[in-house]
Amino acid sequence: MNLQDLKSAKVGLVDTPLATLEHLGEHLSKGPIYIKRDDLTGLAFGGNKARKLDYLVQYALDHHYTTLMTFGGVQSNHARMTAAAAAAKGLKSILVLMGPKPQTCSGNLILDRMMDCELVFVDTSAFAGQKDQKEKTKAYLDRCVKQIVEEKEKAGEKVLNIPIGGQGVIGSAGYIKAVPEIMRQMQEQNISAKYLVCGYGSTGTFAGLVAGALAYKALFEIIGIPVQPDYHPQAECAAFVNQLSEYYDLGFTCTPDMIRVEPGLPEDPYYGLGYDIPDEKTQETMRLMASLEGIFVDPCYTGKVLRGMCDLIKRGVIEENAGVIFLHSGGTPAIWSSEHLDFAQTVLWNDDHNIQVFKAEAV
Ligand SMILES: Cc1ncc(COP(=O)(O)O)c(C=O)c1O
After folding, report:
1. In the structure, what pLDDT confidence band is assigned to residue 112 with cuts at 50, 70 and 90?
2. Which of 76, 205, 209, 300 for mutating ligand 1's site (highest number of atoms within 8 Å of CB)?
3. CA-derived radius of gyration, the chain
4. Candidates 3.40.50.2000, 3.40.190.10, 2.130.10.10, 3.40.50.1100; correct CATH number of 49-166?
C-alpha cells in the first residue's frame, strides 16, 4: 500500500500549530521547547486519535461498514473521538468501556452521552488478583463482543471492530504522515530539535512517528513516555514499526534498541501510581503548564508525558539546547472526570491562595 494513495476521511484537522513554549523554556532554562498542538485537531475537543480516525473512518466508508465499535477505559478519549467521527460521517458507534458503570457521569462520558452513541460497560472485576486474570478478562470480553456483533448483524448492521486506541497499520498512517508535516513546519520556522516526546499507550502514535521519522529521515528522535506500568515491551513495538514499514513499503528495518522509551526512575516513574490514577507530580505539572503558558494538559496522558519531558530536560538526559518538541495529544476532557475532581478540589479549592471574595450588603 502506497501512503500517498491512502485517502483521508478528514474527520479532524491536520497541520496543527507548531509553537514555542517560551515561558516553560525560560522556567527550565535549558534551551528551547516546542509544542505540536495535536490537542487542536478539532474533532470532539481534539487529540491524537483524530489523525488515526481520518484513515480508519475512510476504511469503514470504503468497505461499507455502518457501525464503528471500539474499546477503552471508562474515560477513553479514543472512544469519545470515535463516536464523534462516526456521528460526523453518519455512522453509528458502540463504545465498549472496560469497567463498571460509574455512579457519576463525568468527563468524556458526558460527551459520549450527548452524542447518544451506544455504551457497553464490561466489568471484569470478579477476576481481579487471579493469576490468569488477563486471559479470563480477554475471554469474557471476546464473548461480550461476539454477542454484540451477532445482534447488530442480525439487525442488518456491518460492524467495524477498531482495536483499543485505534492501534493498527491503518490508524498509525496518520502519525507516519504527521512527520513530514512537522519537518516542513520546522523548516518554515527555522526550528531545529533533536527530540520529539510523546505518550506511549497502545503505541500507535509513537510507532507511527518512529516509522515516519525513519521513512522521511527526520533529524529528531522519538521518545515515548509510558502512561502505565505494564507498558508494551520495546520488541513488540519494534515489530509493529516493521509491520508499518512492510505494509506501506517504507524500506527500513527497526530493531528494539531503536525504540526509545523513558519511564523515569524506578522509584519515581512518570506514570505515577498507575493508569488514570491522580498523582501530585502530574497535577503540579498540569498547573505549571496552565500558569506559564495558558495551555492545559490532562491528568491521564499528557500531564505525565510533559512531566517526563521536563524531568528528562532537568536531569540532562535531554541535553541542554538540544531542542525538544512536546506532542500535545489532547485528552483534556479527563480534567473534569470524577476520577480527578476530588483531587482538584483538594489542591485547587481547599486553600484560598489568590482568591478574594467581595460580598455586598443590601443598601
Ligand atoms: C490524550 C492521549 N494521549 C496519548 C495517548 C496514547 O496514544 P497511543 O494509544 O497511540 O499510544 C492516548 C491514548 O488513548 C490519549 O488519549
Report:
1. very high
2. 205
3. 21
4. 3.40.50.1100
